[in-house]
Structure formats: C-alpha cells, structure tokens
Predict the 3D structure of the following.
Amino acid sequence: MLALEIDWFFRDVDAHGWIHIATIPVFTGVIGWLINWTGLIMLFSPVRFHGINVPGLRQLSRVLPRKVQEVPGFLQGGIGWQGIVPARAAKMGSIAVDKAIAKLGTPAEFYQQLEPDQIAEHIVSVFQPDMPKMIEDIMAREHPSLWRDLPRPARQAIIARVQAQLPTVVRGITDEIGVHIDQLLDPKVMVINHFQANPALVVRIFRDFGQRELNLMVAFGFIFGFLLGIPVAIVDHWFGQWWLLPVLGVLVGWTTNALGMWLIFEPPEPRRILGIKVHGLFLRRQDEAAEVYAQIIADDVITLERIGDFLLDGPRGDRTRQMLATAMRPAIDQAAGPVRGAVRIAVGRQRFDNIRDAVATEAVDRTITPFRDPVFSKRQADKIRTLVAVRTKELPPRDFVEMMRSAIREDEWMLYAHGAIMGFAGGLIHLAIFGVGGR
C-alpha cells in the first residue's frame, strides 16, 4: 500500500511541482546555515552593548515579562544588542569559580602552591635597594632635626640594621598573608569582577579552543535545514496552503538552532543513538579545552599581579594593610636595637611611635609592590596554569558543560526565536519566488 502511495505521489508531480519541491530543502538548508552563522554573531558580538537609550524604557522594562527583561540593554533602558556570552560574563565567572577554581582548594592551599618563600625572596631583592631612601625620607619628614643632627655613621648604622631585619620581616609578612589569606582573598569576587570588566576574555575562552566546533555547527546548520526541508516539501505539496511554508519555516528555524546547541553541548557522556556514537563536540576535547582555559585564567585572571592588587586595593584591602603594618612594627622596634630606649626618650614616645608606624605603613605598599612585577608574575603563572588545567580536566563532564554553557543557557531562547524568525522569513521568500505549492 505504501509503495502505491509513493508511486502515486511521484506520478502526481509535474515539472513545475518538482522545481517547487526540490527548492524547499535547498532553501531550508541555506536558511539553516544562515541561522547558525548569524547565531554565532549573536553569541559573541559585539563585546560591549551597542544601541540607543530610550527615555522611560528602564522603568517600563521592569514590568515586562522576565524573558523580555533578559534581552541585553532593556534593563539599562536601551534598545540594541550585546553578544550573549559577553553580556553574561559575570555569571560565567561565578559558575567557573564554583565548578572549577574552587576545586583547587582553599585560598590558603592555592597560596602555598605559589611558593611564598620565593615570593619573599623576590620582595627582598626588589625592596632592599629602595630601603635607604625610604628611611631617609620618613626620618626627614617625621623628625628632621633628629635625623639632621645624627652623624652619618649613625644614620648608616640605623639603615643597615633595618635592612638586616628585612628578610625576616618579609618572611613574616608572607607567612602572615598565608595564615589569613582565606579572609583576605576572595577568588570568586576576583574572577567575577575581572570577567565583568573584561568580557572579551569570556569570548576568548570559547573561541580559542572551540572555533573548530563552532564552524562545524554552522556547517551542520545546512545539513539539519536540508533534512528538515524534505518533510516540509512533502507536506507543502500535499496540502498546498499559502501559509504552510512560513509556519513550517518557524519550526525548521527553531529546531535547527536547538539541534546546533545540542550538537555542541550534549550529551556530556558518550552515548549511542540508533547505533551511532554521539558526544557533545566541546566535551570531546575537554582536556584540550582545559589547557586553553587554564592558560587564560593564569595569564589574565588569577595572576600574582592581580592577587597583589586585590590584597591591597580590593574590598578587604584596609584589613590587609592593617595586618601587615601590625606585623612589621615589632621588627622595626628590633631594628632600633639597644638605642631604642634612648631614642624613645630623646624624641618622645609619641614621636617614636609615629616614626615606627610611618615606616611600617609605607613598607606595606612597597612590600606588596613586587607582586605586581609582570616578569615575576609571568613565572608564577605556570604554577597557576598547571593547577587550573589539572582540576578542569578532572571535572565531571556535566560540570564542565555547565561551566561553559552557563553564559548562554538563560538566553538560548533568543537564539531559538532568532532561528524561528529567519525560518518564517525564508518561507515568505520562497512563497514570493515560487508561489503556492500543492497538487
């Protein structure tokens, strides 16, 4: 019976009908390719919001449906576009910390991997040449007459004692940072803030290791669209209604984009469907992706420079400065040596304490300054990269998918809606060129 139906179908189609039918899969294939190609543009470009501000839109947007509020720019009162991935950079940073970076261990364990002893040695080597001038400047500012009246050998003796104390002081400081690092350093805030300020980094994470898969997704857009166009052509010929192609184009466009996203991220574990082994394209190269991801994190996100900046200038910077200054004061007392009591009497207790506190406070900034040395930070980056790469490779595939997909998931409906709109437009264009099909 089925053979008779198929034979009757082929006999029923004339030459014009064959052209009409044959062009539908070609159209849906081209539209599928365009959908996935432009979908990638929507995902990654532009990095910053481009659009216009509309008076009153900010207030109006708060009463609109939640999905509409998610469109980049609406809550800020603008009409325009920002790439979905860069628009959600902060969220991806948050999930990246929860899924991967947090698995490195506590901030204290992470800090120990950076080899504090080496950091201390570097601080001493950088700080020591500046120590004489710093002491000269502080003494000249805090008690110019005392410093002026001291013989040069006495001045040099004081400077020498302070310099001799420096390695012990610095090791104490790096140890103190290690003890309190859990309270001083918040990797999650650090990563989120950096991703939010530099959304292009999130785009790089996708592009640097996933460009091959993204290109393949675009190519599959044509294949999916073409295959989906075959039943569309049969249905259109069978019923011959003018509205069929635009309506079915919506389904084809939506499905093509959904299949494209599925192709990249699903399934997280290898699985056989109809005897064919399938595995999310990104997941097939998790180890390679981990290396790329770790390199970006180590070079641009969690660097020794940025750790130093966060410790002194971050939300807990005041606490860091206070802690370091408190740790340095006893060492400065010891540097004064046996003349400490005499000096305290000569200049007064308050003045002596002011001098000691000034040395400690100024030394804090200079002590952390070597953290910001780009050459030294670059050397330490290899340790950070290795740590992040190992942990990312160890992630369960589902967690790895979530880490990468988090920047897209809540906005995927926009991609599907974009596919549906383009599918609808493709149906109208085919209708305009070839007219209504049907028997």
